[in-house]
Recover the amino acids of this structure.
């Protein structure tokens, strides 16, 4: 790293990291225009359930999330489509505001609607997931081939999850399998392994997008007071899931499985990895199934999307962070249309070479998702 | 710098705003508490359009829970990341000296004064009966 | 005398029916004996697991860290420290009955004063308090306040509720009034899972999550406005790792810029607040492997006042006789061994 160059580069003069690039955006949130728009994708039995009973969650409110967000529906205030409907629900407006405006070559869809990963009634949850999986293709991927769908499954009902993966794999058009970072148990636990086995066989990356309500408090000391704290706890969930996967030996058991951590940021990755390595020798006899140092699995099997990007005041500090993780491990993501959106023209404020920029904003994702 | 007539005062409702282009620069003019404020229509962070900002109170608290609101509606909360800016100065809340939106002097003038010039009228005729918002940019 | 203050040394409580029995009130003496209330070593630290004690610090029988003479010999003489702060990690902090907790905590503090602090003038200690009932915790703090050998208040990183919440403020006020630091040490009351993802399979994972538990506490203290109310309060994160600090501070600052409206009493940047009020013991450090990495990390922390020298004795964090993590710049080492402990624990009553 060349410190002299970095010192000369004030935040005003940094070449925007995404400039002049075709961008692959690994986190775009399409949305239903309204809740009931899912009804045509549900069977009559689940339509009735949806209308009569609705969501049964481990959270206090019927009509909103436990921590009121920064803005209505967590969205950019300029992302409400002029045609009505919720932010992220109008494909033409998404094209205009994001896909075309920001040079998006491909976008990976991440659906969060309808608390689809957090339904206590697992059968209902599976019906919602299936409906959303069909809706992604019908309303997004088919009319706009730049947008790639994910197979969303609830890992706490493994047989239903496997059945849905098989169904979607047969249909085709999906680029990853998504599970939820907050569910009954840490994702590394054995009960979930059949999902990983199938993902490896199908050569589909396993996506883990922050969120969900699994019933465990956001912190080890219970529930915090503020949205700010809940927002930060997303990074903590991701760090814990990384350690769960690695220490349970999931990448040891499924060495070709690719893990993509989505919307957790990446500031926590180096320290989490150093900490795993630091204490490895001490705990090695507890986990004899690990054949290598934890950092080696992280370097081989895991990728991290960039949003919300870290913004230290010193660009050199960000540069060091990226080097610690490895420039080949990062996948650009915008989180469009949410409030903490990262604009590909301005996010990741540190000087990068053209080759590094191309990797983060395009090539790494192209390889992971085989686009 | 020159003075531009950008709107009739009645064109911008109280609590509303108007985006104008001066020298190919987008400027947003806010009308709040009987005053007009003009700012570059672009957040210095990642470029969000400030005319979509939430117009909120200046919020402080001498101690936890003691929410103190002043200058209601005169702070912008950026439509993307929620950074707050003072409409009058363009200064950000968290870094008033280092992080700001460019702001422009605004005046209100009667049509009969404007008839004396000099000014640049952009897109509409000026009549002596109306009052106008003038931005110096 | 050359000062070198070890800010995290762990004496072991033998048991409630043995070590603590003479220090319990008559009621609790009868209860612990007639009901066999014992075995309260925390699940966080089984004495037999490798991390819990370095092999050369394990006694032939009994728990590591149980005998004061051995601890002074190994932790002070053996590691070249002039003084040590004793942090007792024991189940008194985790029992559910608040009166049992209060009496057990009081007994631990009496035991530490009589059988450790009285034995060796180089020793200092943290006050163990019943966090199950903040009013009882304050009673215990006030009971010890006159004894300057108690230099801080000890709480577990994973508690019933976050430490920034209003019901703990009277405790923070007492800490500030008596110039007692608040030491948040790795360990759990086992109320909530160690992270939002649920209960992990392995102790290894559990131990790693301590870093996030500590971060959640700092976030809570900063955002609830504790340091605005009690600007003199110093909070020490003990045995929580260090290398996560810069990225944690960046994210906290960034999110605060966006949603500061939730907490308008936080009117300076969280990074500045943390640099002023938060301290971290430097074992473990969880460092990057190379010298350049450590130097970068120190530059990112951006303050030479945050680190405190500590061995974490008898926990097995390092081998050999130097607890200072490799490659730290000499100026940082000087401050963490002397200046920073003196500033963080003014009751040490030591001068250069």
């Amino acid at each position: 790293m060349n410190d002299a160059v970095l010192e000369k580069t004030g935040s005003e003069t940094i070449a925007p990291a995404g400039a002049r690039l075709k961008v692959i955006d690994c986190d775009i949130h399409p949305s239903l225009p309204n809740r009931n728009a899912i009804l045509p994708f549900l069977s009559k039995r689940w339509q009735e359930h949806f209308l009569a009973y609705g969501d049964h969650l481990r959270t206090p409110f019927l009509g909103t999330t436990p921590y009121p967000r920064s803005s209505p529906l967590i969205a950019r205030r300029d992302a409400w489509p002029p045609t009505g409907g919720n932010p992220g629900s109008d494909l033409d407006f998404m094209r205009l505001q994001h896909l075309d405006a920001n040079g998006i070559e491909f976008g990976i869809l991440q659906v969060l609607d309808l608390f689809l990963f957090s339904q206590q009634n697992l059968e209902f949850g599976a019906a919602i997931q299936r409906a959303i999986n069909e809706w992604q293709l019908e309303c997004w991927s088919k009319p706009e081939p730049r947008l790639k769908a994910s197979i969303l499954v609830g890992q706490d009902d493994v047989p239903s999850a496997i059945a849905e993966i098989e169904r979607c794999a047969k249909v085709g058009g999906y680029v990853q399998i998504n599970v939820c970072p907050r569910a009954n148990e840490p994702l590394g636990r054995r009960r979930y392994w059949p999902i990983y086995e199938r993902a490896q066989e199908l050569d589909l990356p396993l996506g883990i997008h922050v969120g969900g309500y699994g019933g465990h408090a956001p912190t080890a000391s219970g529930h915090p007071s503020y949205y700010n704290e809940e927002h930060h706890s997303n990074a903590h969930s991701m760090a814990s899931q990384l350690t769960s996967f690695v220490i349970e030996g999931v990448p040891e058991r499924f060495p070709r499985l690719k893990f993509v951590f989505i919307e957790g940021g990446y500031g926590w990755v180096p320290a989490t990895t150093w900490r795993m390595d630091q204490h490895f020798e001490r705990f090695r006899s507890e986990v004899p199934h690990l054949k290598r140092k934890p950092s080696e699995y992280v370097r081989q099997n895991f990728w991290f999307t960039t949003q919300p990007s870290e913004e230290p005041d010193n660009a050199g500090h960000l540069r060091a962070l990226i080097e610690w993780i490895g420039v080949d491990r990062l996948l650009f993501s915008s989180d469009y249309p949410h409030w903490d959106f990262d604009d590909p023209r301005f996010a990741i404020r540190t000087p990068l070479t053209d080759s590094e920029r191309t990797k983060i904003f395009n090539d790494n994702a192209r390889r992971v998702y085989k686009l | 710098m020159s003075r531009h007539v950008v709107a009739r005062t009645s064109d911008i409702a109280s609590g509303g705003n108007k985006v104008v282009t001066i020298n190919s620069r987008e400027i947003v003019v806010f009308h709040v508490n009987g005053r007009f404020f003009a700012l570059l229509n672009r957040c210095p962070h990642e470029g969000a359009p400030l005319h979509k900002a939430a117009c909120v109170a200046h919020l402080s608290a001498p101690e936890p829970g003691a929410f103190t609101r002043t200058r209601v509606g005169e702070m912008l909360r950026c439509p993307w990341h929620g950074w707050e800016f003072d409409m009058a100065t363009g200064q950000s809340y968290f870094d008033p000296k280092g992080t700001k939106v460019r702001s422009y002097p605004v005046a209100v003038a009667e049509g009969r004064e404007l008839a004396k010039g000099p000014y640049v009228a952009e897109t509409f005729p000026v009549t002596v009966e109306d009052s106008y918002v003038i931005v110096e940019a | 005398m050359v000062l070198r203050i070890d800010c995290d040394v762990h004496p072991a409580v033998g048991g409630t029916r043995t070590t603590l029995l003479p220090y319990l009130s008559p009621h609790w003496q009868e209860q612990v004996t007639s009901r066999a209330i014992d075995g309260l070593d925390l699940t966080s630290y089984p004495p037999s697991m490798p991390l819990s004690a370095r092999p050369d610090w394990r006694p032939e029988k009994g728990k590591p860290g149980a005998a004061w003479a051995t601890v002074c010999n190994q932790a002070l003489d053996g590691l070249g420290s002039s003084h040590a702060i004793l942090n007792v990690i024991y189940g008194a902090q985790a029992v559910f009955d608040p009166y049992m907790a209060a009496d057990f905590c009081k007994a631990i503090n009496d035991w530490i004063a009589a059988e450790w602090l009285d034995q060796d003038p180089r020793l200092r200690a943290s006050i163990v308090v019943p966090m199950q009932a903040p009013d009882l915790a304050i009673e215990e703090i006030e009971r010890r306040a006159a004894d300057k050998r108690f230099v801080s208040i000890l709480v577990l990183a994973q508690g019933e509720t976050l430490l920034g919440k209003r019901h703990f403020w009277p405790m923070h006020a007492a800490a500030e009034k008596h110039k007692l630091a608040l030491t948040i040490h790795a360990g759990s009351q086992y109320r909530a899972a160690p992270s939002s993802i649920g209960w992990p399979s392995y102790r290894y994972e559990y131990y790693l999550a301590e870093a996030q538990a500590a971060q959640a506490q700092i976030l809570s203290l900063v955002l609830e406005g504790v340091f605005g109310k009690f600007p003199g309060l110093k909070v020490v994160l003990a045995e929580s790792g260090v290398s996560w600090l810069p990225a944690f501070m960046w994210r906290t600052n960034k999110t605060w810029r966006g949603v500061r409206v939730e907490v308008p009493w936080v009117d300076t940047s969280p990074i500045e607040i943390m640099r002023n009020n938060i301290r971290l013991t430097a074992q473990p450090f969880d460092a990057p492997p190379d010298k350049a990495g450590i130097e970068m990390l120190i530059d990112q922390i951006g303050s030479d006042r945050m680190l405190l020298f500590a061995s974490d004795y008898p926990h097995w964090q390092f081998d050999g006789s130097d607890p200072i993590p490799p490659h730290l710049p000499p100026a940082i080492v000087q401050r963490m061994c002397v200046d920073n402990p003196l500033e963080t624990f003014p009751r040490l009553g030591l001068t250069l």
